[in-house]
Each structure stands twice: as C-alpha cells, then as structure tokens.
C-alpha cells in the first residue's frame, strides 16, 4: 500500500515569447462567444463545454463527451498569443483564471487565457463510471490528444489558428505541457513546464524527502507522526479483523 500526501512545493517559471501580429479582428468575435461576465468589480468565470472525442486513436469509435474549460479574455489584444493552462489530476479551479503568474504574463503580452480540465477529473466525465474497462481511456496519450483537438477546433472556430499558442502546466500538467510541445510542435509555439517530472522513475524516494522537509518546517514532530500513522495503518490492514473496519472508515470501495 502506498501512502501519498500532497506536496507544498512552490513552482516558478520564466518564459520569453515573441509576439507577432495576426490577421483579422478576433477580439469582438471571441467575446461574443465567451461567457465571462463582469458584475460591478467582480469577475465571474463560468463553466464552458467542449465536445471532445472519447478515443482519439480508434476511427471506428465516434463517441464524444463534454470537457469543461474556462476563458479569461480581459487581457486579450488582437494578434496576441493564446495561453492554454492544462488541468491535471484534480478539478480545474476557476480561481486559476483570476490569479497566478501566468496571468501576469498574459496581461503583459495581451494574451487570451484558457484552462482545459483533464479528462476524468472535476466535471469532465468521458464515461458514466470508473470501471476497469473505462479506465482504458484515462492516459496521458489521450489527454495530449484532447489538447491537440481542443487547440485545433478552437483555433479554427475563433480565428486563432495563426496565433501563437503557449501551453502552461505544473507537476503532471507540466509534463503534459512539455510533451504537448514535443508531440504537436505545429500546434504549440512554446511551453512552460513547471516542476515537470518528464522522466519516469520507478523508485523516487526524493519526493517524500521534500515532503518530509515541508512538514517539518511547520512542526518537527509532524513528519514523525505522519510516518507512525502510515506504518500503523499498513500493519492493521494486514489483519482481516480490522481490514473491513478500516476500509469502511475510509469509505473505500472497488469501482
């Protein structure tokens, strides 16, 4: 049993982009499509939905689903780049469209800022359940194809095909950003891959060492207590008498 806890690593990135003019007046056209509205001084970011393919690698499978995304166009200037923030292993948060270093870049460069939620996370549900059969569609390969399809269709629909698209992501989405640029260089001008583990490692103890130091920075006893709790839980899960009670407490069930 693997014990996983979140990391508190601060992520930083720097990027230098060359902005080039694009033909056409796309700002008004896109804002008619956009459902971002401003009430008084408060920006309200609304859910939007993109019709996505279920399986990008099976031409005989025509099934589709609705993938959630968000738009912030308040910085956009005609001919500016398109910034695409990639969602990861959790719900996409609309607050990401209001705060963050990438928005400072967007404001400086007159960028249109988009956020695409990762399949099977948040409200982006490609299938009705999480059965083993359906988990076949959860892969970074399919996620990259989602990004490519989204970029292509949105570019064609809103006159952004010739715009410079820049992918952003941190941690796993950072890996996706790097791979997106590598696999689809004709679609992505540049990528900002922050804290991106692009090389797979079977045994990666350094990750937990960073987490240990993060916990200890709050309280030196904290990582010791977490370790003790984890070891105790593992031992109790080995006992049939306590296994059922623990799984019930943790509300775990097989899909």
Automatic annotation (TrEMBL):
GO terms for molecular function: dipeptidyl-peptidase activity; serine-type exopeptidase activity. Pfam families: Peptidase_S28. Keywords: Glycoprotein, Hydrolase, Protease, Signal. One of its GO terms (biological process) is proteolysis. InterPro entries: AB_hydrolase_fold, Peptidase_S28. Transmembrane segments: none annotated. Residues 1-24 form the signal peptide. Belongs to the peptidase S28 family. This is Serine protease F56F10.1. It comes from Merluccius polli. The gene is F56F10.1.
